Amino acid sequence: MQKIVNLVAQKAKISDEQARTAVDTVASFLKDKLPPGVAGQVDKYLNDEEGTAGAGDNTSGGVGGMADKVGGMFGKK
Questions:
Q1: Which pLDDT belongs to residue 7?
Q2: Looking at per-residue confidence, does 13 or 57 come out higher?
Q3: Whole-angstrom distance, CA of residue 28 vs CA of residue 22
Q4: Taking the model in full, what pTM does it have?
Q5: What's the distance, CA 21 to chain centroid?
Q6: Which of 8, 51, 55, 58 makes the best surface tag, with the fewest CB within 10 Å?
Q7: What is the dihedral of CA 46, 47, 48, 54, to 10 degrees?
Q8: Contact 63, 45 (CB under 8 A)
Q9: Which residues contact 39 (CB under 8 A, 6 or more apart)?
Q10: Strand, coil or helix: what is 37?
């Protein structure tokens, strides 16, 4: 999750603490709004930034894989 926190802090020009709060808030929101099968993957992907989450299921892992999956839910390829 630290990579995401660093990216948010850098892009938004805020402290790491503020960025962590933002990432945690968005993650909680997503977990509340997404279907249970997908919501359970949020923490898995946030805590596995190296891309090994979901290994063996023919999908991309890591945060990029999660973004692809969420985009696919909305018809984006």
A1: 94
A2: 13
A3: 10
A4: 0.60
A5: 14
A6: 58
A7: -70
A8: yes
A9: 30, 31, 32, 33
A10: helix
